[in-house]
C-alpha cells in the first residue's frame, strides 16, 4: 500500500485555514497515489490554485477495488454481511458528524464549487444529512416477497447487495451527489469505490474523514480523486466492479455502458443531462409567480443543474407580462463572492466550463436569436473568478442548436405557443427527458400534461424541487435507473428467487 499522506491546509474563500486530507481514501487511510502525481485545486471565485490533492490512475483504482471486495466478503463482520440495523446506525453516526461540522463543510463546498456559502449550508449539506438519515432508516427495512403461486412449492425472493459498486459523480453538487450515491448503496450492503469530479474533490475527502471516525469497517467506502479518462475509466473497465452508478454527461454515460458491455457486463445506472421544458399557461396563478419559479429554475446553482428549466414555453396571452417579469429578475442577479451575504450568485465552476457556456451564448447569437439579457464576461471586473451574467434568448429558430443542447449554465430560451397540443409537442421535441414543469391553475389541464410529458419528473406550479424522498431520474437519453426514495435501493440490489419443494412435488422423470 502506498505511504500515508498527511492532510494539507487549504485557505478557504472565507479566509479560514482548514485541514483537508489529500490522499486516496483506501481501507480507511488517506494514501498517496501509486504514481505520486498531484492535481491542482482551484477556487473558482478567484481563478487561483488553493492547493493540491493526489491524482489517481488505474493502479489506485485497483487497490480501492481490492479493499472494497475484501470489505464486502471478508467475514460476518464485513459490510456485506453485517446486521442491517448496524449499517443504519453507522449511516446515522456519519450524518451526525457531518451535521456537527456543517459550517466548515459548507465553506469547503462553497470554495471548491463557487456556489454561495448560504446555499451550501442550508440546501446542499442540509440535504446530505437528511439523505444519509433517510437511507439509515431503510437499512433494516429491506425485505423480500413470497410467490406461492405453484402448488407444493414455497417460492420467495430475497434482495441481496450487488457487491462492489463504482460510483462516479460530477462537480455541480459534489456533496449532495456523494450522499445520493453512498446512502442507498450502503443501506443495501454494498461496498464502494467512488470517484469525485476532478475540479471538486474537497468535500468528499473531508467527509471520508468522518466515515473513518464514525467507525465504518475499512474498505467499505473508498474515495478516488483523479481524472475522468484515467481513474474514472479504470472504474468502468475493472473486472471486479459489479456495478457502476454514474452522474454526468451523456457522452461519458455512453462510454461507460460501452465499457461495461465490453468487460464484465457490470450493471450500469446513469443520471445524465437534460433540456427541460418549463411550460407556463395563460391560466397560471400569475405571471409574477411563474417568473419567480422560472428564475429559480434556471438560476439555481448558476444554471449548473441537470434539471435546469432551460426551455421556457409560455402561452401567448401571458407571454409579454411573463417575459417582462422574468427579464427583470434575470437582470437583478448580483454576482459576487460566494461568502458575501449580498451576493445572489457565484461564479461558474471552472475555466473550461466558463468557455463552454460562453461558447453557447455566442452560438445562440450567431443563430439569430434576440438577447434581451445577454451573458457578459465579468472575470476582469470580479477579480479573475469565472463569473458570467445570465442570458435570455427570445425569437429562437426552431432548428437552432441552442434549443437542443444542454448548456448547463445561466442561459435560457423563451418560446411562445398557442395551444396545449402545441406545448406538449414542443416540450417533448428533445432527446432528453429528465424534468419538466407546468404552471396552470386548471387541475384537469395539469393532469393531462402530467400524462403527456415524457420526463422523469413533472413539477406542477413549482420548479427544481428534487427531494431525497421522491424518485428522480431520466426518460429517454437523460438516463437509466432512478435515484432517491425507495427507487434508488433497487439500483443496488440483486433479486434472488428461492424455489423450495414442500416435500411432495415429484420430478417429472420420477418413476411412475
Ligand atoms: P462529465 O461526464 O465530463 O464528468 C462527470 C464525471 O465523470 C466526473 O467525475 C468525471 O471525472 C467522470 N468522467 C469523465 N470521463 C470519464 C470516463 N471516460 N470514464 C469514467 N468517468 C469519466 O460531466 P461534467 O461536465 O463534469 O458534468 C456536467 C454534466 O453532468 C451535464 O451534462 C449534466 O447534466 C450532468 N449532470 C447530471 C445530473 C443528474 O442527476 N442527471 C447531475 C449533475 C450533472
From TrEMBL:
Enzyme active site: 271
GO molecular function annotation: aldehyde dehydrogenase [NAD(P)+] activity
SUPFAM superfamilies: ALDH-like
Keywords, in A-Z order: Oxidoreductase
Domain Aldehyde dehydrogenase as annotated: residue spans: 30-498
Keyword tRNA processing: no
Family matches, as PROSITE patterns: ALDEHYDE_DEHYDR_GLU (PS00687)
Organism superkingdom: Eukaryota
InterPro entries: Ald_DH/histidinol_DH (IPR016161), Ald_DH_C (IPR016163), Ald_DH_CS_GLU (IPR029510), Ald_DH_N (IPR016162), Aldehyde_DH_dom (IPR015590)
Family per similarity comment: Belongs to the aldehyde dehydrogenase family.
Protein name: Aldehyde dehydrogenase domain-containing protein
Originating organism: Cutaneotrichosporon spelunceum
Amino acid at each position: 500500500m502506498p505511504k500515508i499522506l498527511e492532510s494539507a491546509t487549504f485557505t478557504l474563500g472565507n479566509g479560514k485555514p482548514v485541514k483537508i486530507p489529500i490522499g486516496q481514501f483506501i481501507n480507511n487511510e488517506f494514501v498517496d497515489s501509486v504514481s505520486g502525481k498531484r492535481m491542482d485545486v482551484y477556487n473558482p471565485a478567484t481563478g487561483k490554485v488553493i492547493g493540491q490533492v493526489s491524482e489517481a490512475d488505474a493502479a489506485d483504482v485497483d487497490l480501492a477495488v481490492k479493499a472494497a471486495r475484501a470489505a464486502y466478503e471478508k467475514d460476518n463482520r464485513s459490510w456485506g454481511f453485517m446486521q442491517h440495523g448496524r449499517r443504519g446506525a453507522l449511516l446515522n453516526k456519519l450524518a451526525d458528524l457531518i451535521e456537527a461540522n456543517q459550517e466548515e463543510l459548507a465553506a469547503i463546498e462553497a470554495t471548491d464549487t463557487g456556489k454561495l456559502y448560504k446555499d451550501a449550508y442550508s440546501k446542499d449539506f442540509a440535504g446530505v444529512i437528511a439523505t444519509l438519515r433517510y437511507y439509515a432508516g431503510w437499512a433494516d427495512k429491506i425485505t423480500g416477497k413470497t410467490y406461492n403461486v405453484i402448488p407444493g412449492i414455497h417460492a420467495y425472493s430475497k434482495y441481496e447487495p450487488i457487491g462492489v459498486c463504482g460510483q462516479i459523480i460530477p462537480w455541480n453538487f459534489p456533496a449532495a451527489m456523494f450522499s445520493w450515491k453512498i446512502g442507498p448503496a450502503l443501506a443495501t450492503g454494498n461496498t464502494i469505490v467512488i470517484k469525485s469530479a476532478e475540479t471538486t474533490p474537497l468535500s468528499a475527502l473531508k467527509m471520508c474523514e468522518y466515515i473513518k471516525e464514525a467507525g465504518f469497517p475499512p474498505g467499505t467506502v473508498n474515495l478516488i480523486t483523479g481524472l475522468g479518462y484515467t481513474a474514472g475509466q479504470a472504474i468502468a473497465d475493472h473486472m471486479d466492479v459489479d456495478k457502476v452508478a454514474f452522474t454526468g454527461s451523456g457522452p461519458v454515460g455512453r462510454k461507460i455502458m460501452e465499457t461495461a458491455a465490453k468487460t464484465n457486463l457490470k450493471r450500469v445506472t446513469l443520471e445524465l443531462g437534460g433540456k427541460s421544458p418549463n411550460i407556463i399557461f395563460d391560466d397560471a396563478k400569475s405571471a409574477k409567480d411563474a417568473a419567480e419559479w422560472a428564475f429559480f429554475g434556471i438560476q439555481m446553482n448558476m444554471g449548473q443543474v441537470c434539471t435546469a428549466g432551460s426551455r421556457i414555453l409560455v402561452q401567448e396571452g401571458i407571454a409579454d407580462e411573463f417575459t417582462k417579469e422574468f427579464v427583470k429578475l434575470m437582470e437583478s442577479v448580483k454576482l459576487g463572492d460566494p461568502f458575501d451575504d449580498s451576493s445572489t450568485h457565484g461564479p461558474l465552476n471552472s475555466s473550461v466550463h466558463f468557455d463552454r457556456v460562453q461558447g453557447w451564448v455566442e452560438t445562440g447569437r450567431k443563430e439569430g436569436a434576440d438577447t434581451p439579457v445577454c451573458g457578459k464576461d465579468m472575470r476582469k471586473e470580479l477579480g479573475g473568478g469565472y463569473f458570467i451574467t445570465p442570458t435570455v434568448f427570445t425569437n429562437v429558430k426552431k432548428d437552432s442548436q441552442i434549443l437542443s443542447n444542454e448548456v448547463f449554465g445561466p442561459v435560457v430560451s423563451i418560446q411562445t405557443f398557442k395551444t396545449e397540443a402545441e406545448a406538449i409537442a414542443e416540450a417533448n421535441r428533445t432527446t432528453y427527458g429528465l424534468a419538466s414543469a407546468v404552471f396552470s391553475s386548471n387541475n384537469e389541464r395539469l393532469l393531462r400534461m402530467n400524462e403527456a410529458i415524457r420526463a422523469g419528473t413533472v413539477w406542477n406550479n413549482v420548479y427544481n424541487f428534487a427531494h431525497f424522498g421522491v424518485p428522480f431520474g431520466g426518460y429517454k437519453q437523460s438516463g437509466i435507473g432512478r435515484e432517491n426514495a425507495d427507487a434508488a435501493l433497487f439500483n443496488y440490489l440483486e433479486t434472488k428467487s428461492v424455489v423450495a419443494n414442500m416435500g411432495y412435488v415429484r420430478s417429472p422423470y420420477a418413476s411412475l
